[in-house]
Amino acid sequence: MVMMSPNLNVYDAVVIEFDFVPSDSSIGFNYVFASEEFPEFASSAFNDAFGLFISGPGIQGDYTNNAKNIALLPNSSEEVSVNNIYGDGNGAYYNTNTDTNFVYDGFSDVLTAETSVIPCETYHLKLVIADRSDECFNSALFLQAYNFSTNAPVVTMDVPENIANLDTNKIDPNSAIDITFHVSEPYTLGTTIPLSFSGTAVLGTDYTILPNNNEVTFEAGSTSSVITILPILNDASEDDKTILLSFNSLFSCMSNDTLLFLVNNATTNISESSTFDEKKAVQIYPNPSNGAISVKSESENLPYTLTVRNSAGQVVYQSDKIFKALEQIELPENLSGYCTVKVVSEKDSFVYKIIVE
């Protein structure tokens, strides 16, 4: 701030500074500069100001550590200050305060500080606001909440509800697990994010992933996408096996999000009881099925929908809302092998794995 004010004394400076690592090639945030110097002391030496100084790889500026000030008036190299916002008749970005609950006499439009950066490198940001020429009539900076960010959407994944409370995240081999991925902002174009699977369980031998084995796809405009882990029944004498799922949101500098599952091989006998669980609001049986399944709901007042997918992840049956306490569903004649049945009700949402013979 002293370097910005070579001919003025600086008082009451307030500084906030921190390091950050961007995940995209640009950063920015919105702010408002307000002051009690407005409007009487505009075009004077009482020229309070705000500076936002960034330093780091690729930054070449005139301040300490080659920092540059990115708090500038739009389409100019002028600093954000009382005189530049409302001096010499220049009031393009100035607003007179008419709110008695707001102490400052005037304030700027919402301004944006932004600059290009190199993803995954470390940068230093320093925010400074100060009185100049005297210690009277304060100025202030208002930052838009949750606004300091890159342009990169953030991708996260949910731990499935039906295993969230298990320390081991154990998957029953007679069931299937839905994992939902969320993106903070919808992609303009359809985007595919690669997934990494490791652990002692072998993809294709001990489990499959629907609809694709190694990626999750977000359709244009969508903020969520679902994959299903479908265990494959093996010899009951085999040890339990682990699945480690990870992804890094397309940015190698970000730490991977990971989710660990344990495939329990202790239960391999397919029977009606393996999918009839009194704890669930909607039941599916028998399993294996000969082409038809019975669906039992705890109440006619608990409507639900059913989605059946084949082993390739394709939807082969989709119901409207079902209100019956007991319903029989005829599956497509050419359907055979492993399938998933997803049940969604107002009380529950879960996925069954069944075999159609």
- Average pLDDT rating: 77
| Fraction of residues in β-strands | 35-45%
**Helical content class:** under 10%
Gross morphology is: elongated
State the major sheet. 6 strands, antiparallel
The helix-strand sequence is EEEEEHEEEEEEEEEEEEEEEEHEEEEEEE
The secondary-structure class comes to mainly beta
Number of structural units classed as domains: 3
Oligomer classification: single chain
Through-space gap between termini: 77 Å
- Number of helical elements: 2
- Indicate the low-confidence ranges by residue numbers: 164-168, 265-278
How big is the Rg?
Answer: 30 Å
> Could you tell me the number of beta strands?
28
What does this 3D model show about the protein?
The protein is mainly β and 357 residues long. The protein folds into 3 domains: 10-150, no CATH class; 156-263, Immunoglobulin-like (Sandwich), CATH 2.60.40; 272-356, Immunoglobulin-like. It contains 2 helices and 28 strands. Strands 2, 6, 7, 8, 10 and 11 form a 6-stranded antiparallel β-sheet that branches. Strands 1, 3, 4, 5 and 9 form a 5-stranded antiparallel β-sheet that branches. The longest helix has 5 residues, at 82-86. Residues 164-168 and 265-278 have low confidence and may be disordered.
